[in-house]
Description:
By secondary structure, this protein is mainly alpha-helical. The chain has helices at 2-28, 38-45, 52-75, 100-116, and strands at 32-35, 79-82.
Amino acid sequence: xxxxxxxxxxxxxxxxxxxxxxxxxxxxxxxxxxxxxxxxxxxxxxxxxxxxxxxxxxxxxxxxxxxxxxxxxxxxxxxxxxxxxxxxxxxxxxxxxxxxxxxxxxxxxxxxxxxxxxxxxxxxxxxxxxxxxxxxxxxxxx
Length: 142
């Protein structure tokens, strides 16, 4: 009974989160891009003595990916599933330094644009609102 309850909690979380992601993309006229984490999930499954955290990662990654894909298709939002190899370690531009998460996002965006065949450099439609007044240095770091 306890495992079934955990499954329901994860399933509900994945449904709600994916719906919010896709609704947000639709409202702003964005496409959705995500990494294909099948290789990561398969390598985690091969671990013989999995701890609770590893099991949750496996279940959560697969579930959220499935629901994001389904919601994007249902809502008619363009979806790009990119190869994750090197996304957080390849430099997206010459002499660019940033946190691994930022670099990963930029590389996923770059690969998604290529997959979607968008040459303008943006995952938005031309009518989507553009954020031009965002301070790029929110944390006060150089």
